[in-house]
């Protein structure tokens, strides 16, 4: 209930012609249509007492309670296509339900997992009694150092020559948003090319930053594989100097990555067209189990001397989902350019969130910067990546054994990372949820990180039914 202040001039019939009085009365009536009926009753009573037939008595001001809101024009936003899946899953009372929507790692018991090295790093922080002072705008220096080295390799010339501008960001999303603002400010009119399909939040990020984007072909539904020729053709056809958004490894949502030879050809075309490669690296070490292998695509472009943007996230590979810890890196042609680029990234961050959080940054710095913890982390990543590979194999085996139609399900084994693009359409995905209580995104993507070996046969039954019986 809002309070609205209403001021009225009450004019008597002795000082105003009757038509004006009638108009005043109409105004009084309309003013209180949404108000309290007691107020109207008060005026009616005063009129009967001859109040309006006296000389003007001045201006009356009163507060009237109304139901109107200044936010009436704000419409209901649609649910997030990914996070909304978890909300629907929580509301489901069925014991068989499966949440394969959000990309978050689960144990074989389908429980959230906190890495042992993360616990050890946090214990170190407690033992040291570290404070909670503000970080600089660019973030924790130790974090920025180890995260650039993890991405490019500690011996990379770009690092030693001071050509890498690194700022701590709010995980992958926040880092991408920083880069989008940088593009909008210093490359006005430049377009970002995004794979079709891509992670659902990419388009939101560039829309909000007012950066124009278009799509390049990536997924071939006929082969459930990479449309490499279409991808190359679209990158060639883009306006010179476009930003080409690439997934460093474990493409989300398809799980389909270019081969090393295809990466070379992609780099060739981007160089020929004077485009700027822009990598989103969310799964380094988590896809194959090897930090170096999963960063090979980025390192290829940097080794060619190209200027490259790279957004990083530690949500998946260190399980730091809620810490919102990541980084934005810009590999520049010189150290002087890197200093200036970093200054502008800090300038953009200052009014956006001012300072990044410290807890996750110190966890990463402790783990990546300590040889013992670093080796333990690599072992844990290999275990997590290995569990997903085992589940992927079991799902393929179950589908192949149960489906008597002869359909080839081998594309599941060719995909990599925590996701599998099943090829199911929206109606079939709806059937997965409505009939089988399997929650997934409507583009047919499932998160294998949320699947256990014990649930593979049930999931296979759901997929076969949805694929063959729903058009």
From TrEMBL:
<keyword id="KW-0032">Aminotransferase</keyword>
<protein>
    <recommendedName>
        <fullName>aspartate transaminase</fullName>
        <ecNumber>2.6.1.1</ecNumber>
    </recommendedName>
</protein>
<dbReference type="InterPro" id="IPR004839">
    <property type="entry name" value="Aminotransferase_I/II_large"/>
</dbReference>
<dbReference type="GO" id="GO:0004069">
    <property type="term" value="F:L-aspartate:2-oxoglutarate aminotransferase activity"/>
</dbReference>
<comment type="subunit">
    <text>Homodimer.</text>
</comment>
<dbReference type="InterPro" id="IPR000796">
    <property type="entry name" value="Asp_trans"/>
</dbReference>
<dbReference type="InterPro" id="IPR015422">
    <property type="entry name" value="PyrdxlP-dep_Trfase_small"/>
</dbReference>
<dbReference type="InterPro" id="IPR015424">
    <property type="entry name" value="PyrdxlP-dep_Trfase"/>
</dbReference>
<dbReference type="GO" id="GO:0030170">
    <property type="term" value="F:pyridoxal phosphate binding"/>
</dbReference>
<comment type="similarity">
    <text>Belongs to the class-I pyridoxal-phosphate-dependent aminotransferase family.</text>
</comment>
<feature type="domain" description="Aminotransferase class I/classII large">
    <location>
        <begin position="97"/>
        <end position="463"/>
    </location>
</feature>
<dbReference type="InterPro" id="IPR015421">
    <property type="entry name" value="PyrdxlP-dep_Trfase_major"/>
</dbReference>
<dbReference type="Pfam" id="PF00155">
    <property type="entry name" value="Aminotran_1_2"/>
</dbReference>
<keyword id="KW-0663">Pyridoxal phosphate</keyword>
<keyword id="KW-0808">Transferase</keyword>
<dbReference type="GO" id="GO:0006520">
    <property type="term" value="P:amino acid metabolic process"/>
</dbReference>
């Amino acid at each position: 209930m809002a309070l609205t202040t209403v001021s009225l001039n009450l004019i008597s019939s002795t000082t105003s012609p009757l038509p004006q009085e009638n108009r005043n009365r109409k105004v009084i009536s309309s003013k209180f249509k949404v108000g309290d009926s007691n107020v109207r009753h008060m005026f009616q009573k005063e009129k009967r007492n001859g109040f309006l037939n006296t000389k003007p008595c001045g201006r009356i001001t009163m507060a009237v309670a109304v139901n109107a809101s200044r936010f009436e024009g704000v419409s209901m936003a649609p649910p997030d296509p990914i996070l909304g899946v978890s909300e629907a899953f929580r509301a489901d009372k069925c014991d068989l339900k499966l949440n394969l929507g959000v990309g978050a790692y689960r144990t074989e018991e389908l429980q959230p997992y906190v890495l042992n090295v993360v616990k050890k790093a946090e214990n170190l922080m407690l033992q040291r009694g570290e404070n909670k002072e503000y970080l600089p705008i660019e973030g924790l220096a130790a974090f920025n150092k180890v995260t650039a080295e993890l991405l490019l390799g500690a011996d990379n010339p770009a690092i030693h020559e001071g050509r890498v501008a690194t700022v701590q960001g709010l995980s992958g999303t926040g880092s991408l948003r920083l880069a989008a603002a940088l593009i909008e400010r210093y490359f006005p009119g430049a377009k970002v090319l995004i794979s079709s399909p891509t992670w659902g939040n990419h388009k939101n990020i560039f829309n909000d930053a007012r950066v124009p984007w278009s799509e390049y072909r990536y997924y071939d539904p006929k082969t459930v594989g990479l449309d490499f020729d279409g991808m190359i053709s679209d990158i060639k056809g883009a306006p010179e100097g476009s930003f080409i958004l690439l997934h460093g490894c474990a493409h989300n949502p398809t799980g389909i990555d270019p081969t090393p030879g295809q990466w070379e050809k992609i780099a060739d075309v981007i160089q020929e067209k004077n485009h700027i490669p822009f990598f989103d690296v969310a799964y380094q070490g988590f896809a194959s189990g090897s930090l170096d292998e999963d960063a090979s695509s980025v390192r290829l472009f940097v080794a060619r001397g190209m200027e490259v943007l790279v957004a990083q996230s530690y949500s998946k590979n260190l399980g730091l989902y809620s810490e919102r810890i990541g980084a934005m890196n810009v590999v520049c042609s010189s150290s002087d350019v890197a200093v200036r680029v970093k200054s502008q990234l800090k300038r953009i961050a200052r009014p956006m969130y001012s300072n990044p959080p410290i807890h996750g940054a110190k966890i990463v710095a402790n783990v990546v910067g300590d040889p013992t913890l670093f080796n333990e982390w690599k072992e844990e990543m290999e275990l997590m990546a290995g569990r997903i590979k085992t589940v992927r194999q079991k799902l393929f085996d179950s589908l192949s054994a149960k489906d008597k139609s002869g359909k080839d399900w081998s594309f599941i084994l060719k995909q990599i990372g925590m996701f599998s693009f099943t090829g199911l359409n929206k109606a079939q995905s709806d059937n997965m949820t409505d009939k089988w209580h399997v929650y997934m995104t409507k583009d047919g993507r499932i998160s294998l990180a949320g699947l256990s070996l014990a649930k593979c046969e049930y999931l296979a039954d759901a997929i076969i039914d949805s694929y063959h019986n729903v058009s």
